[in-house]
Specification:
Layout lengths: L16 H28 L10 H8 L3 H7 L3 H20 L8 H18 L1 H8 L4 H25 L8 H20 L8 H15 L10
């Protein structure tokens, strides 16, 4: 199958390569701008609380005009939501690159591990989030993302004839709420002497039981 970029233009309507090139340049410029803003935000969280960081702070550090910032984001909380969503989603994708080829239990385990790995890679940012007014916003972003991911994975499984024992919406909602809470408890050492290896061993067992596929012979 030809790629989109190699498809021919309809007869009588030659491809406008000038417009395509202009769009590609704009997309690249946008990516560079957003990346600069993200990098500036991460640098600022090293020394400032999230609620104390202003749009001006981010733009000054990134060398980006505020007007440009507002072309992409409504305000700093919209930007924060984008950054947190992006960080978590990228890690989820790296662990679940082929969601059709693994079980739902493994998929949920990987999501949980990605949360842990992000915490390890951005320890100062995580501490700032836990102790800031933005904690609930981050939890809401994460829960929405997990819920959506599990529902998408369930649709993949259903195409292969695999149906969950537990209703998917209930399973997705339960796990989406459980992961942030259990990982927060672990980070705050509210699970006694539990280490990471023990925690994830237990979580794997939990997911294997929760995400058991339904008996193929049983009617939905």
């Amino acid at each position: 199958m030809a790629s989109i970029s190699n498809l021919s233009a309809p007869a009588g309507k030659p491809a406008d390569s000038g417009k395509e090139n202009k769009k590609a340049k704009w997309d690249l410029r946008k990516q560079k701008t957003v990346r600069a803003l993200e990098d500036a935000f991460f640098e600022l969280t090293e020394t400032k609380w999230i609620e104390d960081i202003t749009v001006r702070d981010i733009c000054d550090r990134a060398l980006v005009r505020r007007a440009t910032f507002y072309n992409h984001f409504a305000d700093k909380y919209d930007f924060f939501a984008y950054v947190m969503n992006n960080v978590q989603r990228n890690t989820n994708l790296s662990l679940n690159a082929n969601p059709k080829d693994i079980t739902m239990a493994e998929y949920c385990y990987n999501i949980c591990y990605s949360y842990y790995r992000n915490n390890q890679e951005h320890p100062k940012l995580v501490r700032r989030i836990y102790d800031s007014k933005s904690r609930q916003l981050y939890s809401d972003i994460l829960m929405d993302q997990i819920r959506e991911a599990i529902q998408t994975k369930a649709r993949y499984d259903l195409e292969k004839g695999i149906r969950m024992e537990i209703q998917v919406d209930v399973l997705a909602g339960f796990i989406a709420g459980a992961i942030p809470n259990i990982m927060t408890a672990f980070e705050k050492k509210n699970l006694g002497e539990t280490d990471a290896e023990t925690l994830f061993s237990e979580l794997r067992r939990i997911f294997e039981r929760l995400c058991a596929p339904a008996d193929p012979g049983r009617k939905p």
